[in-house]
Each structure stands twice: as C-alpha cells, then as structure tokens.
Amino acid sequence: MRKEFPQGFYWGASTSAHQVEGNNVHSDFWLMENLEGSIFKEPSGDAVDHYRRYREDIQLMAELGLNSYRFSIEWARIEPEEGCFDQEAIEHYRDMLAACHENNIMPIVTLHHFTSPQWLIRAGGWESEATPSSFARYCEKVMSELGEMIPYACTINEANISIGIAKIMKRHQAQGNAQVGVNLGNMASIQKYYMALGQAFGLHPQQIHSFLGPRSEQGLRIIFQAHEAAREAIRRVSPHTKVGITLSLYDIQSIPGGESHAAHALQEEFLQFLPYLQEDDFFGLQNYTRYIYGPDGYIPPAEDAEKTQMGNEFYPEGLEAVIRYVHKHLHKPIIVTENGVATDHDERRIVFIDRALNGVHACVEDGIPVLGYMHWSLLDNFEWQLGFAKTFGLIAVDRSTQQRFPKPSAYHYGNIARSNVLQD
Fold first, then answer.
1. Which residues are catalytic?
2. In the structure, what pLDDT confidence band is assigned to residue 175 with cuts at 50, 70 and 90?
3. Are strands 2-4 and 421-423 parallel, antiparallel or unpaired?
4. How far is CA 418 from the centre of its chain?
5. Nearest-CA neighbor of 117 among 84, 162, 157?
C-alpha cells in the first residue's frame, strides 16, 4: 500500500554541533570531558569532523534524497568570551547555510543544543537571572547576520529535559534507561570529579549550572524565559524566520491504577510549559520511546522486551501517540525534530523508521499539521557522557579516517524521502 505524504513535506536528519563538529574548545562540555577523572567515557576530540566536512555531508544528504537538515549553531564558537563575537565562526555557519541552499536542503537551525560557553557557566549558568538576556543577545547577533538564510529556528533543544535529569540518572543506574547519554561511576569518583570541576570553573561544585545539570524551579523558569527573550529578538531582526522550541516527550501510558502517575508525568513533561509556547510559530517534537506507569509509578520495560543501546524499549509507535497528544493541547504546526534509535542492527533501524512513519502518515491523514520528519541522527556521533559507542546514525563514520559510509537505512529512508511515499 502506497502512503503518500503532502507535497513539500520536510524529509531530513538532525545533528547537534558538539556531537559532530569536533574541537568545541570554548564550551562547558569540552572542559568537563577533558578533566582528569571525568565521568565522560571519552572526550569528544575531533568528533566526526563535521566542522570541516559539512559540505561533503550536506551533499551526501542531497544525494540520498533528503531535502532538510536540522543542525545547531554553537554559542561557544560564536561568543567564546562574553560580548565578543567571532566573525570567523559566523562566516563558517554562513557557508554551511549556503551549502544547504546550494543542495536544495532546507536548514532548520537550533540555537542552543545542550552546550554553553564556559563564561556563561562562570556567570551563573542556567540558574542565573541574567542568562535570558545573554542568550537573546547571542540569538539576535546570529539572526541579524544569518537570518535571511534561516527559514526555521529552534531556540532551545529539549528545554524541558533538565527536570528529568536526576530521574533519568536514577533509572540509568538501575537498568540503563536514558534518553540522553549519562555515565555513572561510584560516588567517590563522582565527588572527586565535581571537586575538580569546581576548581576548573573557579566555582563551588554546587554553583556549576550547565544545561543538563539538575534544575531548580527557578532554573526551569529561566530556560523558558530565555526562549521567550530569544523569540522576541529573532522576530525583531529576522521577521520572516519561523520560531519554535523543541521538547523531549515520552509516550506516557498507564495501566489500571497508574493513571494519576501518568497524569503527573504529562503535566511535568509538557502541559506546564504550554503558556510559554502560545506565541511560537511551530513546535519541535522529539520522541524515542514510551514510559508506562502503574499503581506504584514507573514500570521498567519487560525483561523480554526489545531494547535499544540506550536501554529504552524499542517502540516507534510512541511517535504517533505523542503527535496526537501535542496537537490536542497545542494547535501549532509540528515538525518532528528528532526520532530514531540507537542500535548495532541497521535492519532494526529500517523497521523503526517504517513503523514511526506509519504513525506520522496516520496523523497527517487525520489533518494534524505535521510539516516534516528529522531522523536522529544523520551521523554516528558523540553521545555525550557515553562517548562514541552508541550508534544512532544513518551514516557510519570510520573515525580513524573520518570516512563516511551510508548504511542501508540511509538509502531506505532516502528512497522514502525522494518519492514522498511510504510503501506499507
């Protein structure tokens, strides 16, 4: 059965700067990775050298049949010292955007994807009342320089994720379940690491507030105020650019007796943020799996359930459920800005893509305004604290040579994109 998508549907893949570019030396994560005793499995180093090989990668996307690319501009490169903007970095991203347009690839730009300049952390980071204005200043600079080439801008990636970091770490410690790479050692090594981190930043360890750190209610408010301030700044200098945000959303389900736990999770993960999203032009939706709640709370995946490298249940059907839930509560165009699977078995990635896209198509058929689907990720890359072992990419990379090797899933997905049809 042929399942056709609307003309002009955005077919793409996503990356984030720190995970693919390499040598992001002014970022907070670079400092954290390279400390002796770091809880990162390995440093990002050259990553997959996308900072130099972006033209090759964008051309490869076009050859595969994709028409969109969601990537991030790195704040720590643009503003390595507070108030000092690096014109060479701006020109780099200008050429990256030009490469997209030359290859008929529509760019969707994220302005903050987890990493921040080191100076921002020293100034209070994501718990500081000054951060929204600092972030807006950076966004205004980028968009005043490059906005004419950017049709869609996501201010902040997974702005809601920090509320669940402690929860994710606890679950990861228990059974390996996490949506963002975390790596936990013993408590003594963690304490030693954070003492060294405090010395490196010149702060008490409890004053280090990176984006992925545990978040207070004030810090959560600051993140969404930063989104609002950035949205206003972008519209001032680049009024044609459509502005949104991305949130990490699980498909929240319940069995009898778990309804109140599920309702609480939905409120915590999504509903509480609706007031901040009303003036957005679109919503960036990110989903990887489901969470099930029972009378006693969260229920881990069954022992015999298929699981991904991240410990998540293999559950591509979650995407359709989350799209429908978001549309019920937020009447905005939706772009799936991330959806994918970490697996060594690429044939399972193909299955994941097909099952996820079946759900997207069903939503489109029902009139839900889903504009596009960005698969995570374009390249096997640096999965934060877990290093390079987790493979989300459509394209494999031999990091000894940085040579690219499209996987069968890349050709499969590219054929869907090129034809605009999913064969069921």
1. 158
2. very low
3. antiparallel
4. 24
5. 84
